[in-house]
Design brief:
Layout (H helix, E strand, L loop, with lengths): L1 H93 L1
């Protein structure tokens, strides 16, 4: 039993610093790489909803522009209609 303990104590004394070195130089970079990959995968779907919101906003803006054009055309039509009526009355009054 004492022979086993005499062999085990130096092995344990060497293995503790070895575990620290392995953890610091081998395991830590692997963990960081895996963490970065998972963060990158999580960030990609966030762009999709943002693009969808931007597209929806652009569609609403285009709709507002079409409506505004229609309103402007209608106002010009009304103005022309009223001016032609006023011009027709003044000619009737003159004649």
């Amino acid at each position: 039993m004492h022979d086993v303990l005499r062999m085990l104590i130096p092995v344990m004394g060497v293995s503790i610093p070895l575990v620290v070195v392995v953890g610091a130089f081998i395991v830590q970079p692997i963990v960081k790489a895996v963490t970065r990959m998972s963060d990158a995968r999580a960030a990609v779907p966030a762009i999709g909803p943002l693009e969808q919101r931007l597209q929806a906003t652009e569609e609403r803006l285009a709709h507002v522009e079409r409506q505004l054009s229609r309103v402007i055309e209608e106002q010009e039509f009304q103005r022309n209609l009223l001016s032609s009526r006023a011009g027709g009355r003044s000619m009737a009054d003159a004649g």
